């Protein structure tokens, strides 16, 4: 019986571990952004990328003896290296070769940030770029280059865009503007004024036809009052001596 209980306990632990969710797993939204599973924060790297065909970092020397150029999110061209995410050359005057492209990019958790993994389209090596959350104004590219042990490329970028929601702006959800709300309220009040006033006049039997409308006599004479007021204002502005005040009632 004791053995059976322990077996069930071990089985439950294994099952819960297999189906558990990595608290810092960052689920990919697109090739430039991901969303953390634990708090819903978004890491958006798009503000870092150059979109003019050039790379964000160009010919940065690495420990493996090569110079690397890198641009996240958006492909770039550098001499014979086309539609690239990363290129390399042996010297500043040598030919350029492709290291990684944007065709297959995965996001993963990383200590204090996220990690982008570029999988090769054909024969090639995996490229990992760790984006570290650092509150600085200018991104820093740290190229480690090719690792002969793991047979993959490793790099690091220090940037504030790797911090939760630092470079992310939530899309506008739309909705009714303040002006639209005021117009709706205005027309609703007009409708209620006319409807309630007409019902009240009809019930009291004081009038019929259009005369059931509230303050009917005032609204009928209102255009004439506006006209008289405008004429009076114009005459005063023109310094007319014929009219200096309203007629006495």
From TrEMBL:
Per the record, the GO terms for biological process are: autophagy; protein transport
Keyword Protein transport attached? yes
Quote any Pfam family the record assigns: ATG27
Membrane topology classification: Single-pass type I membrane protein; Single-pass membrane protein
Q: Where are the transmembrane segments?
A: 181-199
Spell out the PANTHER family in the cross-references: MANNOSE 6-PHOSPHATE RECEPTOR-LIKE PROTEIN 1, MANNOSE-6-PHOSPHATE RECEPTOR FAMILY MEMBER
- What is the official name of this protein in its record? Autophagy-related protein 27
The gene designation is: 106073846
């Amino acid at each position: 019986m004791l053995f059976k209980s322990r077996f069930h306990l071990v089985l439950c632990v294994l099952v819960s571990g297999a189906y558990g969710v990595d608290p810092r797993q960052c689920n990919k939204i697109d090739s430039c952004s991901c969303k953390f599973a634990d708090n819903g924060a978004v890491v958006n790297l798009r503000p870092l990328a150059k979109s003019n065909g050039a790379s964000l970092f160009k010919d940065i020397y690495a420990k493996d003896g090569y110079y690397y150029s890198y641009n996240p999110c958006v492909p770039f061209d550098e001499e014979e290296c086309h539609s690239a995410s990363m290129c390399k050359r042996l010297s500043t005057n040598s030919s350029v070769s492709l290291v990684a492209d944007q065709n297959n990019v995965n996001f993963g958790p990383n200590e204090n940030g996220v990690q982008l993994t570029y999988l090769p389209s054909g024969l090639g090596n995996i490229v990992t770029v760790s984006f570290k959350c650092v509150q600085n104004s200018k991104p820093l590219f740290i190229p480690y280059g090719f690792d002969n042990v793991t047979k993959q490329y490793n790099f690091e970028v220090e940037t504030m865009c790797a911090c939760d929601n630092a470079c992310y702006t939530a899309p506008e959800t739309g909705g009714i503007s303040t002006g639209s709300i005021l117009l709706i309220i205005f027309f609703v009040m007009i409708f209620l004024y006319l409807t309630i006033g007409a019902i009240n006049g009809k019930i009291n039997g004081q009038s019929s036809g259009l005369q059931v409308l509230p303050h009917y006599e005032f609204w009928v004479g209102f255009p004439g009052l506006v006209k008289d007021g405008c004429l009076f204002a114009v005459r005063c502005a023109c310094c007319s001596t014929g009219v200096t005040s309203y007629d006495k009632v």
